[in-house]
Write a structure and sequence with these properties.
The structure is a homodimer.
Chain A (H helix, E strand, L loop, with lengths): L15 H8 L5 E5 L6 H14 L4 E5 H4 L11 H20 L3 E5 L5 H11 L4 E6 L3 H7 L4 H6 L21 E3 L6 H15 L9
Parallel strand pairs in A: 1-3, 1-4, 2-3, 4-5
Helix pairs in contact in A: 2-8, 4-5
Chain lengths: 205, 205
């Protein structure tokens, strides 16, 4: 719902295929969801590097990083988390419109928020990847010491402890970092993008 | 101010120069400011097309378009306008980080908001372009019929009528569409980007 009916949409003069031709890629959003410590950010940044290495223009939108900038006014209430995901989805969509492959790494615990992201970005270019490392393993790793704080009651609304995580019902891809190395995750993702992104490997390369 | 001290910044593994090498351009933000009807959006989309025509990856962030998505929860109070500009500046910054040339077309009437945008994006890559078409001309054009509504009191907070516009003191470039054609504006902007963006015209082209 837009607040003002005096706001008129203006189309770009550049067709999406012009961007695809320049970049030799189709824009998609790889949406990584999973618990804190599951490996989302590590996979996201490794995938970004691997894609840049083969001259594909990708960019990571990372949960913690966005909360330093665009979303720094938001907390962790259910309402704020939804607004966080909405804004990220809007930025993913803009980046796809610009021609980029977007890699979004967000806990995004609620199915309804991920559904909204899918709607904003568009079904045909949204790929939900569930980093399904178990809570037990994430808590044992506790890279940032947050599970310990959550168990001590110092962080409320912590996903998996004081706040729910709703697993995706039909994710496009499952990545469990208890079983797979980061390199294996990246290779699986690139294979997957290759399948979904026509002209990903143009004939002249 | 970030709401939570448990949020840790994570760096990309891809250096900015890798992106510059792939795209053969330096990322900058061209920030077009001026009254409604001054020609900002028209110039922005024409510049985007001209840049894509020479294989430069640019993307327009347009005031009205953003208010259909990322900023659709915001109105036109001074507070909401500031938040609108803050979010747009954060997105411009992310797009620059991704390697793109960003063209931002927003009335952005207040000097303090444009200053915040400059700080978020970084002085070295923020270029303020004042589309200084006069209020008189903008009102005569009245492409969207908004000045008429504002004069009738149907739109309050309309910039130039019920709400102030603070002209930039030292803009990087002035474009007056009463004197210049759109093509002339675009050519001046490309000359300007050429000056500020090293390696804009790589030797092998």
């Amino acid at each position: 719902m837009i607040k003002d009916k005096n706001i008129v949409w203006q189309n770009s003069l550049v067709l999406p295929r012009i961007r695809s031709n320049i970049l030799r890629q189709e824009p998609v959003t790889i949406w990584l969801t999973g618990l804190s410590g599951s490996g989302k950010s590590t996979i996201a940044f490794a995938l970004e590097k691997a894609l840049l290495n083969i001259n594909k223009l990708a960019f990571v939108l990372d949960g913690d990083n966005l909360r330093h900038g665009l979303c720094k006014d938001l907390g962790f209430s259910e309402e704020d988390r939804s607004e966080n995901i909405r804004r990220v989805a809007e930025v993913s969509n803009l980046m796809n419109n610009a021609g980029l492959i977007t890699i979004s790494a967000f806990i995004s615990p609620l199915a309804k928020d991920r559904l909204l992201a899918r709607e904003i970005i568009g079904k045909s270019r949204f790929y939900e990847v569930y980093v399904n490392t178990s809570l037990d393993t994430c808590e044992k790793r506790d890279c940032k010491g947050l599970y310990k704080k959550a168990r001590m009651g110092l962080i409320k609304d912590f996903t998996g402890i004081g706040s729910p995580y709703e697993p995706p019902i039909e994710p496009d891809l499952l990545l469990n970092t208890e079983i797979l190395t980061i390199d294996q995750c990246v290779n699986l993702l690139i294979e997957h993008i290759n399948l979904i992104s026509k002209d990903f490997w143009p004939a002249h390369l």
